[in-house]
Amino acid sequence: MKKITKATYLKWYEDMLFWRKFEDKLAQVYIQQKVRGFLHLYNGQEAILAGSLHAMDLTKDKMITAYRNHVQPIGMGVDPRKVMAELYGKGTGTSQGLGGSMHIFSKEHRFYGGHGIVGGQIPLGAGLAFADKYFKRDAVTLTFLGDGAARQGSLHETLNMAVKWDLPVVFCVENNGYAMGTSVARTSKSTEIWKLGNGYEMPCGPVDAMNPVKVAEAMDEAITRARKGEGPTFLELKTYRYRGHSMSDAQQYRTKEEVAEYQKVDPITQVLEVIKEKKYATEKEIKEIDKRVKKLVNECEKFAEESDYPAKNVMYDTVYEQKDYPFLSHKVE
Ligand SMILES: Cc1ncc(C[n+]2csc(CCOP(=O)(O)OP(=O)(O)O)c2C)c(N)n1
Ligand SMILES: [Mg+2]
User: Fold this and answer.
1) Which reactions does this protein catalyse (predicted)?
2) Collapsing DSSP states into helix, strand and coil, what is residue 300?
């Protein structure tokens, strides 16, 4: 694995803080009704992305996930201003404002969405890996899913085929304890989701996903295995989300104390503690990072605010059209 150095810790701190503050800003503008529709935030789960990116080869590896998907493309290299603009529904967004919160996508940066159907992205992730194997391209696909998707049929059908064909894919379950308001324990006898891999004789295991070091180590092992042609791995990343499922969640299924318990092992705080302990940065340098993060978040907001909505016709230019379809009399010319 690439060594975890002072530079790694400083990057992790700045990146994770930016992702956290970017999402905090989204929550704020959502309440002001500048961003509409559903909004699912990633606060608390950042170590998963930080650790994964460290283990990936960002010149060729791919990523696909569900709808909690705003910061992953930023980590993969997409301009955060474009992500913010997409959430505002503006024409300068990653999909010209037509996708919105659940559908961030960037082929250029190998981020394949952004999927609203629980478990819908799982077979697609294996499909991306199948294509890479078929065309003999050296790339690994990280396929993320929530604990709620672990009981979907699509996961089980995909695991079976992926392991049978030794596909270069890593299945990463982000177990944040809840699927909307339903805890893992309410839906399944076994709460150790990683054990599902055993049923397919797929290498599998649990990961302390509040710590980016642990995530990077587990991902590196899985990615190396996939790259060598030895097939998929099934990881359960044990994490927690601080905010509700979406912005309209009253969170009656959990206590404030439970949230506070996980905040004690917050990934950003953990990384900052190492930085301070190992004297990787002075107080002044840390403040400078904080300032840079705040400035970039404000730049994203300004860019989104000042961008225009897409022209009305864009809507019709980006959908499938059958010239002789008899039922669409309202087409805009
Ligand atoms: C097939 C399908 N069934 C139900 C829903 C409604 N739904 C949206 S999110 C969600 C919970 C998913 O939870 P989880 O997979 O744990 O992801 P998390 O939100 O915790 O990241 C459900 C049931 C859906 N989008 N798709
Ligand atoms: Mg969940």
Assistant:
1) N(6)-[(R)-lipoyl]-L-lysyl-[protein] + pyruvate + H(+) = N(6)-[(R)-S(8)-acetyldihydrolipoyl]-L-lysyl-[protein] + CO2
2) helix
